[in-house]
Amino acid sequence: MSTTITADKKVVEIHHYGSRHWVGDGFPVRNLIPGNTVGEQLSPFLLLDYAGPEKFDPTDSPRGVGEHPHRGFETVTIVYDGVVAHRDSTGNGGVIGPGDVQWMTAASGIVHEEMHEKEWAKKGGAFHAIQLWVNLPRSHKMSSPGYQTLLKADIPAVELGGGAGHLRVIAGEFRGVKGPAKTFTPIHLYDVRVKGGSMVEITVPSSFNAAVFVLQGEVSVNGSEPVKEAELARLDRNGERITIVAATDTIVLVLAGEPINEPVARYGPFVMNTKAELVQAVNDYQAGKMGHLS
């Protein structure tokens, strides 16, 4: 009779943010992916921008990022504080606030804007969010664009037991509980709250790339040195178990995904497989083939 042994995913490196800059006039971000040496090692995740925490004064002119294009991947925006309004060239739009997630599939091409929602902007307040870029496989890069609004009420939360905290399943599944996001490749995306002094064990497939990003507090991952606010622990692909020990009350984002083993060519807001496809993307946008906002 054989016994299955679950091995730890070892921490390969702890990354500090590579740059700090503004995206438009509404999103002060610290970039973790692809900054520093983090890049292909975390496929299918192409980018992680950590926005805030930042206090915004009241204004009648909402801040944000105006009309801009994307092709070849998906954007995932997770809001912790503040309110974001989105609209795009396909006619989709939506408003997301604390606990909500926006999952936009740019695919063959989309033009959109992301702004502070006007009523929230009039009041001002704390803003805190993450944006991920998730690559699409070659077979789906030129699919039709899509949009998913994942409201807090629709994202299931799993209690971790022993009063350790809870885990929200945005994508993939955890202990049999499935998240609402529809993805093109297998992805697990968890918003995790862990109380200080508690330990949480998470299991993901050994073939998946994985990382733990700390938004608040301090943790140790599989016995690592402390991982602090705005730091990312990148894990080895081998092994399945991720053990998080929280030194303080902590908020972390756990991301794990099946790597897309294809060439990556990127230029600004476009991510394709070849340079020729990037040139085509630029030409198509300039020709208006991705549409415009009305």
Question: Overview of this structure, please?
Answer:
It is a single chain. With 294 residues, the protein is mainly β. The chain contains two helices and 26 strands. It has helices at 118-123, 275-286, and strands at 11-15, 19-23, 27-33, 45-56, 64-70, 73-81, 84-88, 93-96, 101-105, 110-116, 125-135, 146-150, 157-159, 165-171, 173-174, 177-178, 187-194, 199-203, 209-216, 218-221, 227-228, 232-235, 241-246, 250-257, 265-267, 270-272. The protein has a seven-stranded antiparallel β-sheet with strand order 1-22-19-24-17-14-13, with no helix packed on it. A seven-stranded antiparallel β-sheet has the order 2-3-4-11-6-9-12. The longest helix has 12 residues, at 275-286. The model has no long low-confidence stretch (mean pLDDT 94).
Give the termini distance in whole angstroms. 65 Å
Number of strand elements: 26
What overall form do the CA principal axes indicate?
globular
Largest sheet: 7 strands, antiparallel
Beta content comes to: over 45%
Identify the strand order in the major beta sheet. Answer: 1-22-19-24-17-14-13
SS field, number of helical segments:
2
Look at the helices and sheets and give the structural class.
mainly beta
Radius of gyration: 19 Å
Mean pLDDT: 94
Low-confidence stretches at least 5 residues in length (pLDDT < 50)? none
Percent helix range: under 10%
SSE string: EEEEEEEEEEHEEEEEEEEEEEEEEEEH
